[in-house]
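Fold this complex.
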Amino acid sequence: MVDISEQAITSVCTMQIRSAKLARKKEIIRSGTTVEQMVRSIADLIITGAMHPGERLDEISLANRFEVSRTPVREALSQLCASGLVCRQPNKSAIVTNVTQKHLASMFEAMAELEAVCARLSAERMTVDERRMLDAEHTASARLVYSRCEDEYEAHNIEFHTRLYRGAHSEHLAELANQTRARLAPFRRAQFRIPGRLARSYQEHDVVVTAILRADGPAASLAAYTHVSIVSTASTVFADTGTD
Amino acid sequence: MVDISEQAITSVCTMQIRSAKLARKKEIIRSGTTVEQMVRSIADLIITGAMHPGERLDEISLANRFEVSRTPVREALSQLCASGLVCRQPNKSAIVTNVTQKHLASMFEAMAELEAVCARLSAERMTVDERRMLDAEHTASARLVYSRCEDEYEAHNIEFHTRLYRGAHSEHLAELANQTRARLAPFRRAQFRIPGRLARSYQEHDVVVTAILRADGPAASLAAYTHVSIVSTASTVFADTGTD
DNA sequence: ATTGGACAAACTGCATGCACTAATCGACAA
DNA sequence: TTGTCGATTAGTGCATGCAGTTTGTCCAAT
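Structure:
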């Protein structure tokens, strides 16, 4: 089963890259895109579970699969290594990083702490405009809950959290939060498919927003921490059944 | 003036790489070291101020300077980009990242928040052994203060903070802390040369340790936050005069 | 049967070359 | 004089080739 899906996904990715190459070869190459696409494709292979932790990512095979040379493959692997999805050792093949349940838990914990800090600082520091925008976005997303638009809500969700990070007015903190968030993405992907999760997510957001609008730092902090913790348990359930 | 120092440093780095290459060419190549050395060398160029923010890092010049081909240079730049020291855009030269005073402040703030979280969790979670080791190390470092051993104390200081990160028993949190710490290293380098800083650092550590041994999370958190904040102001003073 | 070593195949690390992009400079026109 | 439009040069992105290393396999010796 794994092999089949792997091949299927591989061919899909190859097609994407290939068509992109053909289409843009004489148009808007805007190069660098090749590597970027490869990063996404390989990341998807890992995220979707087509490649298992510990599996070798040898450069030649990947180069053949994606119909590019080894150079961009190497660069892509470098970036994936930096982002933590794969591991590299000198003179050895890159391998898909093992994410133990324990490590996953620690990532969610770090995420919760980061969001808590961001929420607190947001409550203290957001400008009037930022508060208004946060509130507006949040209110606007209510209808997505009732119409069960998981994908749209997901987009809104990202926007919401990004506003939280920016609102702390601490560039580096936002960077750490975004980075951790990206690294958790694979394990959080399907959380909104849990029945009722959408509505509860909205309610949790509501508590955070209310606290921030009141400039109540501690309350915002606690609400954000709780929110992420719930996402954590909701997601690890999926991680268990989905990837293992 | 810039050009002179740049050339001087360049030749030094080139020599390092060159001699390394010659020495290891037939011995213990342990490859991957080439790129790693380049990363350090270029990072040093940036950290020491030999290259100014916004300055171009063109691959060919670097390849010539270090007497290697462009391939490892590109990989080194990739890694430096991932670590945040340089920025890259498609089809443009990599440039030294601008670290504004504001961004620097945000990094220190993030560091303070991270350490605060780690200290709190350490107070709550450290095993008996970890507490004992932390205390022992801290107590042992007292004599370094009186004998004014800045370098040794610096080494101890790193060990102390690393124990704090590990003590939180959250792998990813420790990773974030270490990463941020590494990124701040250039700006914190000379803090212990401020008269009396050593003794005060020890006292601040003492407050943290005491709180952790008492399993008093909030106190540990506050103490760690305060400690980093003080380091921040002590260091930015140097950043102002040293790098600008 | 098991273990040790040697050989072979596969793969990584780096160098070099080519195609395409971007930027700078000069020329021409307004 | 200035603004705009080519052309040339410098530099990036990717492909390919070679050297060195690792790993897997096979044979021999214990």
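Residues 217-243 of chain B form the longest helix (27 residues).
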